[in-house]
Amino acid sequence: AQRVTQPEKLLSVFKGAPVELKCNYSYSGSPELFWYVQYSRQRLQLLLRHISRESIKGFTADLNKGETSFHLKKPFAQEEDSAMYYCALSGSGNTGKLIFGQGTTLQVKP
Amino acid sequence: EAGVVQSPRYKIIEKKQPVAFWCNPISGHNTLYWYRQNLGQGPELLIRYENEEAVDDSQLPKDRFSAERLKGVDSTLKIQPAELGDSAVYLCASSSRGLAEGHYNEQFFGPGTRLTVL
Hints:
The complex is a heterodimer.
Chain A: E1 3-5, E2 10-14, E3 19-21, E4 24-26, E5 32-38, E6 45-49, E7 60-61, E8 72-74, E9 83-90, E10 99-100, E11 104-109
Chain B: E1 5-7, E2 10-13, E3 19-24, E4 31-37, E5 44-50, E6 53-56, E7 65-68, E8 75-79, E9 88-95, E10 108-109, E11 113-117
Parallel strand pairs in B: 2-11
Antiparallel strand pairs in B: 1-3, 3-8, 4-5, 4-9, 5-6, 7-8, 9-10, 9-11
């Protein structure tokens, strides 16, 4: 079964501290992985996707097929990073269907 | 550009009443998605349209839910009759088709409609 698991509902860090939002997935083929973010009172939007291999707003994520993980990392958290983060999977053959995790609230304290 | 437009933004109804949600995707986006997001959960796909054709409605509870996308642009999602468990945020998203067969571009989400069933 296709599944995305985000084990932490809430992650609270101080400004300047490193951040790692965990994401594990279950999929038998070659999935495409995404991180979506929702800032307060804004709509859900794409943060990054693994095939792009780019850093967005200082965030990076590496697909680890051996550990079936796609953790989101940032070396120095900023207060404006506070938001809800969702990891999502799209299966090979790409139907366009996204399977989302439960989401992790990142709270960056001053 | 306004992005994906949804209305209404909020809806409160009593159980057994009907309700409808409307979505206008980004111009030129041929793929449209309806998701349901329960409290504390990530969005779950209900139905996906390619132009006017529903190509994935496997997660749509067809006994009470229906959707249409006339002319392959705007879409309407209906619930009749609504139940208490239908309280959720209903999200619409759209994307353009990628250059390669089976490749889909970024999904752009609307603000959602928050439904409360009393």
